[in-house]
Structure formats: structure tokens, C-alpha cells
Design a protein that fits this description.
The protein is an alpha/beta fold and 446 residues long. It folds into 2 domains: 250 residues, Rossmann fold (3-Layer(aba) Sandwich); 155 residues, 3-Layer(aba) Sandwich (Rossmann fold), CATH 3.40.50. 43% of the residues lie in helices and 15% in strands. The chain is built from 19 helices and 13 strands. Strands 3-2-1-4-5-6-7 form a 7-stranded parallel beta sheet, with helices on both faces. A 6-stranded parallel beta sheet has the order 10-9-8-11-12-13, sandwiched between helices. β12, α16 and β13 form a beta-alpha-beta unit. α8 runs antiparallel to α9 and α15 packs across α18.
């Protein structure tokens, strides 16, 4: 693996397949023990590679962390053209079961699921071929623990025999679809509400059937109901070695940047709102200012924004870091946001001030002096942008605070330790330390 992604992932481990039930030689087991390594099946709703967007980043980091103590088999549907990605993921785990799932097949399965009273998401992410491949693998060599990554694969995970089942729901997806429905009309509104109900049923099933259920923030836990004894918060982190401060080109035009997948509805709505409501005022006040929209799959509405003076839409880029490094501020004007926005943490890790809506950082529970400036309406937004663009001393103080915050609170190893320790305990493995799951708020407190 060459290029920026190799640097982001670090050196690949040299993991080779072993017979079922074998012991793992050092360094994969404690040096004072050669007991058989517990076998963990990690089922994801999409292939968690390359780790270049939100859900794939978290899934990949979990696979890496769990792989230090478990023999990890990753199973996921695979889109066309992802065979090389499956091969690149293989060195990071013990086996990859990647089953092709075309778009037409996904849509058909989604429609069948809806007609059967289930969520479309469940149909999308559970091709029969994947079920069969998992069943064959389990029959060949049983699993000690099964982890479902997202609510859509919970039924498939629970169908696999194991001593324990764990789910990482990440976000309360049912709430996201309810929010979509609140701004839709007619049949679309009904479909969105229907999807929210289906996903809510999957979330409840996970809470009722799994020994442990993780979400990314206390806010997401509160949506699910904080009184479940098996519900825990497992925060996101950021790769602080990869996303590290870089020198800014002093002669570059003053710029601000938004990063993200640009066919994702909340991202599309965010940049369109900023370009319409805030950017014209900023552009009049700061000569030569640039607004960079960086990310794959820009929709026609996003591409059209490039017609405005100073707006640049890049499309897919190999590496977002030069764009973050060259910007004076990072913008996150999301009005619909669930869970943790990795774009916030990545910008902070690079020592960039982030201007964000309160919704965009609700899942982070940031400390005071975090290097994030909150803004809501257009006036607050252009006041914040103009102030930060003009006052370098204030901006540089916030930049240092941003970097310090992620180093202190958002390192992946520390964030994922509770999940790893819970999985080890459920499999009867000794823990390096007690797993301290972050308390979740009760419904009354939320």
C-alpha cells in the first residue's frame, strides 16, 4: 500500500492464517501465555476499508484494537471495484469475508425488506451470499464472540452461534431518519418515518439480545434510553500522528475549508446554506477569500456552488491534509448531525480552529477552551469567520487549544479500551484493567 493511506495506517502487521483453535505466537498473545486465541467475528454493513470516511474509520480502528487480543474475521458486503480494498484490509485481521453486493440487488433487497415490514437498511446490508459465507465459516470453526457494526447487521450477527454478542450501533440511526422525515412531505415523509420505525426496532433488538451495546456519545445513548445496563459509550478518536499540524503557506489566499462526502445529505445542506447565507458577506469583507469544499461525489447542487466567486469544489482528493493545512479555519455548518463528526476532530488534530454549529459537536462533549467556536444563525457565522480571519493572535491561541484537546481526550487507544475490555471479559479473557464504560444519562436527565 503506497501513498498517504499507508502513512495513515502505519506499518501493516504480518498476520498469516492459522488452523482453527491454534495458539497465536508472540506478539499476538501475552508472552507468559500460549492459550488458544478467542475468535471474533466482526460484521460490518460495508467493507471497512479504506478508512477514509466516518463509519469506516471507526470500524477499522476497532478491528486494529481487537486484533491485539482476538483472532478477528471481518465479514461485510462489498461494492463493485472493492476487491483490492478487501485485499488491503486482509493484513489487518485474520480473514476477510467480502461478498459482492451490486446496487440493483441492494435496492431489490431493500424493497423486499420494506414489504416484509422491516427496515430497508436491513435489506441493503444483508445479502444472502454473505449470510451463507458466514454460516459456512462458523460451521468450520466456531466463533467465541460476534460484533455487529451498525443496527442493520444485528439480525445477521444474532443468527451466528457464539458465547456472546456485542453491537456497536455508533449512532441512533432511527433518530436521523425521523429528522429527515420532519423536513419531507408526502410519500417521502411516510417512507422516512417507516425507516425510522424499522431501525428503532433493530436498535431495541440489539439492546434486548446483546450482552453489550456501544454508541459513540452520551447524546446517542440518551436517544436509546440511558437505563439499559448493557449500554455503553465508546467515543471516537483521531489518528493524531497522521492528522498532525503542517506548515501553512503564508502567501496563499485566506481560505476556509469544509471536508466530507459530498453526496451525504447533511453535508450538502450545510455547504449550500453557508454559500447562500454567509459566504456573500464574508467575500465582500475579505478580498480574495476562498471557500474550499473538499470531498468525493459532489452532487449537482454542490458543483453549482463553484460558480460563486471564491468557491472551489475539488471533488475527490487523495489527501485532505494539505487543504486543512492551507486553511485559516475549518467550517462545519451542519444543521442535521448524528454522533461524532470526524471532520471536527481531524481539523482540530491538525491545529485548525473549527467553527461549527452546536449540533455538529453535540456528540463530542468538548471541554472548555477546546479550540472550537460555535455559531448558529448567519450573523453569528459571519461574525465568527471575520473575527478569526482578521485576528491572528486569537486564532493561533485557539489552534493550540484544538491540538491539545485531541491529544488529551480523543486518542483511539484510550477511546476503544472499554470496548476491547468488555469483549475480553465476555470471552473469559483476563483484562489488563477493568473496563470502565462511560455512564450514560438516564432519560430523565437527557
Amino acid at each position: 500500500m503506497a501513498g498517504p493511506l499507508a502513512a495513515r495506517n502505519g506499518d501493516r502487521p504480518n498476520r498469516t492464517p492459522r488452523p482453527c483453535g491454534s495458539t497465536r505466537p508472540a506478539p499476538w498473545v501475552r508472552k507468559d501465555s500460549l492459550k488458544a486465541v478467542r475468535r471474533l467475528l466482526f460484521i460490518a454493513h460495508r467493507l471497512p476499508y479504506p478508512p477514509d470516511k466516518g463509519d469506516r474509520v471507526r470500524a477499522f480502528q476497532e478491528i486494529k484494537a481487537l486484533g491485539r487480543d482476538f483472532e478477528v474475521v471481518v465479514a461485510a458486503p462489498m461494492e463493485r471495484g472493492q476487491a483490492s480494498a478487501a485485499a488491503d484490509l486482509a493484513p489487518w485481521c485474520d480473514k476477510v469475508i467480502a461478498v459482492p453486493a451490486g446496487r440493483v440487488g441492494r435496492r431489490v433487497r431493500g424493497m423486499v425488506a420494506v414489504l416484509a415490514g422491516r427496515s430497508a437498511t436491513e435489506g441493503f446490508v444483508q445479502p444472502r451470499a454473505l449470510r451463507r459465507a458466514i454460516a459456512a465459516e462458523a460451521a468450520s470453526c466456531p466463533f467465541d464472540l460476534v460484533l455487529a457494526y451498525s443496527s442493520g447487521v444485528v439480525p445477521m450477527a444474532l443468527s451466528v452461534p457464539a458465547a456472546a454478542h456485542v453491537a456497536d450501533l455508533v449512532d441512533a440511526d432511527s433518530a436521523k431518519w425521523d429528522a429527515y422525515a420532519s423536513t419531507a412531505e408526502g410519500l417521502t415523509r411516510w417512507l422516512y418515518h417507516r425507516e425510522a420505525r424499522g431501525l428503532g426496532a433493530l436498535e431495541r433488538r440489539a439492546l434486548e439480545a446483546c450482552q453489550a451495546v456501544a454508541v459513540v456519545s452520551p447524546a446517542e445513548a440518551a436517544v436509546l434510553g440511558g437505563d439499559w445496563p448493557n449500554l455503553m459509550v465508546v467515543r471516537n478518536g483521531v489518528d493524531t500522528r497522521y492528522f498532525a499540524p503542517m506548515l501553512r503557506t503564508t502567501k496563499a489566499a485566506p481560505s476556509m475549508v469544509f471536508t466530507g462526502t459530498m453526496n451525504y445529505r447533511p453535508n450538502v445542506e450545510a455547504v449550500c446554506w453557508f454559500a447562500r447565507e454567509v459566504w456573500p458577506t464574508v467575500r465582500r469583507q475579505i478580498v480574495g477569500a476562498k471557500f474550499l469544499i473538499v470531498g468525493r461525489h459532489p452532487t449537482p447542487a454542490v458543483r453549482q456552488l463553484a460558480q460563486a466567486p471564491g468557491v472551489e469544489v475539488t471533488g475527490a482528493v487523495d489527501d485532505v491534509r494539505p487543504y486543512l493545512a492551507g486553511a485559516l479555519v475549518a467550517l462545519v455548518p451542519l444543521h442535521l448531525a448524528r454522533g461524532v463528526q470526524n471532520k471536527v476532530l481531524e481539523a482540530m488534530a491538525m491545529g485548525r480552529v473549527v467553527i461549527a454549529t452546536p449540533q455538529a459537536t453535540a456528540g463530542l462533549d468538548l471541554p472548555d477552551k477546546s479550540g472550537v467556536v460555535h455559531a448558529e444563525g448567519p450573523e453569528q457565522w459571519y461574525d465568527a469567520v471575520l473575527s478569526l480571519m482578521r485576528h491572528s493572535q486569537w486564532r493561533e491561541l485557539l489552534e493550540r487549544s484544538a491540538r491539545r484537546t485531541v491529544l488529551d481526550y480523543f486518542q483511539w487507544d484510550a477511546s476503544l479500551r472499554p470496548l476491547v475490555e468488555v469483549c475480553k471479559r465476555l470471552c473469559g479473557q483476563p483484562s489488563a484493567q477493568p473496563a470502565v464504560a462511560e455512564p450514560v444519562p438516564s432519560p430523565a436527565a437527557s
